Amino acid sequence: MIVNQWVPAAHHGDAVGDNARAIRSVLRRQGHQSDIFALSIDDALTGSVRPWSDRDARQGDVTILHFAMPSPMTAAFATLPGTRVLCYHNVTPPAFFAPFDAGLAGLTARGRAELTTLVGRVDVALGVSDYNRRELEDFGFDHTGVLPLLIDTTRLTSAPPVPALERMLQDGLVNILFVGRLAPNKKIEDHIRLAEQYKRYVDVYYRFIFVGRCDAVPRYYDAIRGLVAEYRMLSDRFWFPGPASNAELAAYYRNAHAYVSLSEHEGFCVPLVEAMSMDVPVLAYGAAAVPETLGGAGVCFTPKDLEFAAELLGAL
């Protein structure tokens, strides 16, 4: 059987693309012919992912569309003759982006509207979490299910040391980690407010580390740095190193005293699984799919009382 996957953008280190490659490996081990096709492909993935313009993209007995953004793939997918499987990775509601980037707010609004055009035109609609599956039902999809992300934690648990970085992290400060792009739904500003509560009531020897892209929403990143200045905090206690290699990311996890998630919208949240795989205690605000992904592990709290959260973080 030919089982193809469509991904609008194939990025190295992106949860959607990584998941598609993991699914392809499973399908090939089971004896199926399987390829991934994308509109845009990172140089690092050339040869591993094929261009969507290739005629073979439309020859699958089964085609899986990984939906996380609007694209020309959506309309074409609805007309394919074979079995059509929608895999929904969630689209962040536009309200999170509206105060910082009208273009991104418009893009996410179009994405959520475009998703509804597939109602009644797919054989099965799968969410990567039950939270996503319920959202698909709200959009009007029938025949829904859950296909959790396949996460390769060995890339972290087997990663080599990074001595220079690890020496910097082992200077006696408490390392409080976040991993992911700095986007408004992640509520990084609440991490800064948490730091103020932690410093005031728990411990002054802290360091908050944010590993991930800072340029996704530039005005939002500027607002975060502005909040650090407004609270008159020591800027060197807040690290924004940008994206990291697998070895560097593993070093951050290995030297983290706790992982914190204060996000208010997650369709799955891969770093929670990564942190747990690296034996890092997790403190997470219980929004969207976060409690489901934690599965009873970690410390999950609601409502978002940051003074209480600082006490929990101190206990961890």
Characterize the overall form: globular
Counted beta strands: 13
Largest sheet: 7 strands, parallel
Strand content: 15-25%
Q: What oligomeric state best describes the polypeptide chains here?
A: single chain
Query: Can you count the helices?
Result: 12
Structural classification: alpha/beta
* N-C termini distance: 49 Å
The average pLDDT score comes to 97
* Rg value: 20 Å
Low-pLDDT regions:
none
Sheet with most strands: strand arrangement: 3-2-1-4-5-6-7
- What series of H and E elements makes up the topology? EHEEEHEHEHEHHEHEHEHEHEHEH
Instruction: Tell me roughly what share of residues is in helical segments.
Output: 25-40%
What does this entry look like structurally?
Helix content is 36%, strand content 20%. The protein has 316 residues and is α/β, with parallel strands linked by helices. Helix 2 links the parallel strand 4 (62-67) and strand 5 (83-88). Helix 7 (188-201) crosses helix 12 (306-315). The longest helix has 15 residues, at 15-29. The radius of gyration is 20 Å and the shape is globular. The mean pLDDT is 97.
